[in-house]
């Protein structure tokens, strides 16, 4: 038999052929799905071993290019010598039969020889082959480093659309802002979605044995395979599929760039929603259907003909493709069994024992296991890290918050060469304003001195300082120029800010007393905003935006809308340090990684001032809370200036509090204002203990659907698909 392309078959895993049905991502599989992956090593080892044997059997048949007797294939797969045990009736052949029979990848002919199902599929007429278009949305471009957030698939049968599948995927991390802007997918949309370990088996069953189509299909398949490997599914998806980019370059003339939009326009297809998994899959399916028709017009009758046309002549024998280099080539596989499942930090060391990278994780085993499938050199700054690691030390901690803080401390102390963040705290910038000046101005500086000026910060980056200053100058009529002003210098022509009424123009000289008073009030407003004392600047922006829209001044309304977006970035993405110092005086109670215990954190003036682990009982929690409250009383007033070395800790605490604010009723307790009153402290400790130790109500999540039987509900194709 002539060799056939094995990659047309999509999985080495046992699975039944999926019916042509569809799923809907609006149904949530439940936010409490078990995270499958490395933490299930004990249960996943048999499946992972079978996956490796199936992959080996596939590679042996691809290399042979023809069906093999069970004895020869068993000897190659199990690594045994030919002999009595490897005969047709021997135990190795029987084990091979149990391994290969459930898998749709393999087939056995009447003579008892094993071959690949794709060899028969490749001879079928194109109109008789069902294809499936796959598309994914992710948190970034690097498989292993970034995660899936949405998957979709559309079946094509006889050149026409069939059923569709769509699911959100919980990535267990926040979606970057630019990804949200690009796709429209927000954190709230994936918060209650199922994890990849639940979604991918359903997607795999929906795909069945169908050849996979995609636009830049290698990107989609690489993400699916990395996530599948992370979830213990092995290589559940093929390494290759039929790429509509290659088809377009082959069958569309005059196409300089083969982006999906350009190909669709060249084929006169309407473009609706883009950069979402299902709409992109539908558009790709439309493109493929038209390209398939052109391929048939040029003589492509079978699937093998299509592959040859795309590749301009398929090779007679398919050699095993080289695997993409990944971390598993360098990291000791035995380490994976020792990684703990608790929160903590990890330290990677090189051959000399030097710590070259420090990281943190909510679940150490999940994070460290991901390095094994991480492609090497996926970013320039990390190039060479995994190749240099000879030891990984893990330190288990009580919670995610403690892991974040310990990571920051270790990076500052050890200065690992592969850590680029949290190392440059000594150069953090400030915003300075000299209130003694007649016309003060706000500007960035990295030097702090006892010159009587007021300093705000430090900030985590110069970019945040730029955004903050730009916001202040958009809203308040403050000067930005550095020129000398009257009476120390002659009057001069004002700049554009004066003409657009964003500055009173002190450079002109002769300003009235009322104009000077208004200017200094604007300075005080800016200082109050930067100091976290007032947030009414945001309310003012909103009011002015609505007023501008009401009088149909849409240009100004748009500028104010952009200013509001910048304000959100300043106040939420990078909490001002001075505001956090005043606001964050809390006792935080959170479940510990130790069973039956609770972690108590004392946050005083924005800093972590104390931490205790105590059994989750009323008497223990009450005593611990009382002790921490007394410690807070002893700390007194906050320091007048925040040191650069404290910036990261205050930022980490502030952002962690912001991210977990939905748990405030049971986890966050504001310290009483009168910490010098024993009765106040006793009442506070009793309230903390009663709340923390109260039984958790067993209430079903609203809108949580039954997971049985709802994965492939019948549905018509997307309404915007013009076939």
Secondary structure topology:
Layout: H1 41-64, E1 68-69, H2 70-78, H3 91-100, E2 106-108, E3 113-116, H4 117-121, E4 130-138, E5 148-157, E6 160-168, H5 177-183, H6 187-190, H7 196-207, E7 212-214, H8 217-230, E8 242-243, H9 244-251, H10 260-266, H11 277-297, H12 303-311, E9 344-349, E10 355-361, H13 364-370, H14 385-388, E11 391-396, H15 400-414, E12 430-433, E13 442-445, E14 454-456, H16 462-475, H17 496-499, H18 513-530, H19 536-550, H20 554-573, H21 577-583, E15 586-591, E16 597-604, E17 607-615, H22 618-635, H23 647-659, H24 664-667, E18 668-670, H25 678-692
Parallel strand pairs: 4-7, 7-8
Antiparallel strand pairs: 1-3, 2-3, 4-5, 5-6, 9-10, 9-11, 12-13, 12-14, 15-16, 15-18, 16-17
Short description:
This protein has 723 residues and is of the alpha+beta class.
Describe this structure in words.
The protein is built from 25 helices and 18 strands. It has a 5-stranded mixed β-sheet with strand order 6-5-4-7-8, sandwiched between helices. It is 39% helix and 14% strand. It starts with 40 loop residues before the first helix and ends in a 31-residue tail after the last helix. By secondary structure, the chain is of the alpha+beta class. The longest helix has 24 residues, at 41-64. 39% of the residues are buried.
Features:
disordered C terminus; 25 helices; 4-stranded antiparallel sheet; alpha+beta; 5-stranded mixed sheet; 39% helix
The number of E-state strands comes to 18
Largest sheet: 5 strands, mixed
Radius of gyration: 32 Å
Q: Which stretches of 5+ consecutive residues score pLDDT under 50?
A: 1-48, 313-322, 572-579, 698-723
> Which strand order do you get reading across the main beta sheet?
6-5-4-7-8
Helix fraction, binned, reads 25-40%
Q: How does the overall form come out from the CA principal axes?
A: globular
State the separation between the terminal residues, measured CA to CA: 38 Å
Number of helices: 25
| Structural class determined from secondary elements | alpha+beta
User: Beta-sheet strand percentage?
Assistant: 5-15%
Mean pLDDT across the residues is 75
């Amino acid at each position: 038999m002539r060799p056939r392309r094995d990659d047309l078959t999509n999985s080495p895993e046992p699975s039944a052929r999926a019916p042509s049905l569809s799923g809907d991502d609006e149904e949530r599989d439940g936010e409490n799905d078990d995270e499958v992956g490395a933490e299930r090593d004990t249960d996943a080892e048999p499946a992972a071993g079978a996956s490796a044997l199936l992959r080996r059997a596939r590679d042996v048949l691809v290399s042979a290019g023809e069906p093999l007797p069970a004895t020869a294939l068993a000897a190659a797969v199990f690594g045994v010598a030919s002999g009595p045990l490897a005969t047709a009736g021997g135990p190795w052949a029987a084990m091979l039969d149990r391994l290969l029979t459930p898998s749709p990848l393999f087939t056995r002919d009447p003579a008892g020889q094993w071959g690949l199902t794709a060899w028969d599929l490749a001879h079928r007429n194109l109109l008789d082959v069902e294809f499936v278009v796959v598309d994914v949305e992710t948190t970034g471009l690097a498989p292993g480093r970034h995660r899936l957030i949405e998957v979709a698939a559309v079946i094509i049968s006889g050149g026409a659309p069939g059923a569709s599948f769509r699911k959100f995927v919980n990535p267990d991390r926040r979606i970057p802002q630019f990804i949200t802007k690009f796709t429209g997918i927000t954190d709230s949309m994936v918060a209650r979605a199922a994890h990849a370990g639940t979604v991918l088996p359903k997607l795999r069953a929906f795909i069945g044995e169908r050849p996979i189509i995609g636009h830049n299909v290698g990107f989609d398949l690489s993400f699916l395979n990395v996530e599948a490997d992370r979830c213990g599914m092995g290589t559940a998806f093929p390494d290759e599929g039929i790429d509509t980019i290659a088809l377009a370059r082959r069958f569309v003339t005059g196409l300089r760039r083969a982006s999906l939009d350009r190909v669709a326009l060249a084929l006169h297809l309407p473009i609706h929603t883009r950069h979402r998994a299902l709409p992109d899959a539908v558009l790709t399916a439309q493109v493929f259907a038209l390209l398939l028709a052109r391929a048939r017009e040029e003589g492509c009758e079978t699937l093998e003909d299509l592959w040859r046309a795309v590749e301009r002549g398929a090779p007679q024998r398919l050699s095993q493709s080289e695997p993409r280099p990944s971390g598993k080539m360098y990291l000791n596989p035995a380490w994976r069994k020792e990684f703990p499942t608790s929160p903590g930090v990890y330290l990677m060391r090189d051959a000399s024992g030097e710590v070259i990278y420090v990281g943190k994780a909510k679940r150490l085993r999940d994070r460290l296991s991901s390095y094994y499938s991480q492609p090497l050199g996926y970013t320039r700054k990390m190039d060479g890290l995994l190749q240099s690691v000879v030891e990984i030390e893990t330190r288990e901690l009580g919670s995610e918050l403690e892991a974040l803080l310990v990571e920051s401390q270790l990076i500052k102390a050890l200065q690992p060469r592969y850590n680029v963040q949290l190392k440059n705290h000594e150069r953090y910038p400030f915003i300075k304003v000299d209130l003694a000046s007649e016309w003060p101005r706000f500007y960035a500086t990295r030097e702090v001195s006892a010159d009587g000026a007021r300093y705000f910060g430090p900030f985590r980056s110069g970019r945040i300082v730029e955004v903050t200053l730009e916001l202040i100058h958009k809203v308040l009529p403050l000067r930005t120029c550095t020129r000398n002003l009257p009476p120390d210098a002659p009057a001069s022509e004002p700049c554009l800010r004066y003409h657009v009424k964003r500055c009173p123009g002190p450079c002109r000289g002769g300003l009235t007393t009322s104009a000077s008073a208004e200017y200094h009030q604007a300075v005080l407003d800016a200082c109050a905003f930067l100091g976290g004392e007032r947030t009414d600047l945001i309310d003012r922006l909103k009011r002015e935006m609505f007023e501008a829209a009401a009088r149909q001044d849409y240009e100004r309304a748009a500028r104010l809308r952009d200013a509001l977006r910048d304000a959100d970035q300043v106040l939420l993405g990078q909490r001002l340090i001075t505001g956090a110092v005043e606001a964050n005086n809390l006792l935080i109670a959170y479940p510990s990684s130790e069973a039956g215990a609770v972690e108590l954190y004392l946050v005083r003036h924005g800093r972590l001032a104390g931490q205790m682990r105590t059994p989750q009982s009323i008497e223990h929690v009450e005593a611990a809370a009382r002790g921490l409250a007394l410690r807070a009383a002893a700390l007194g007033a906050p320091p007048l200036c925040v040191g650069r070395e404290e910036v990261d800790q205050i930022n980490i605490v502030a952002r962690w509090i912001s991210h977990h604010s939905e748990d405030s009723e049971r986890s966050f307790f504001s310290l009483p204002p009168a910490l010098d009153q024993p009765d106040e402290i006793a009442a506070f400790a009793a309230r903390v203990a009663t709340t923390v130790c109260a039984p958790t109500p067993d209430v079903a999540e609203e809108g949580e659907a039954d997971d049985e039987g709802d994965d492939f509900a019948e549905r018509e194709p997307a309404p915007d698909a013009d076939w």
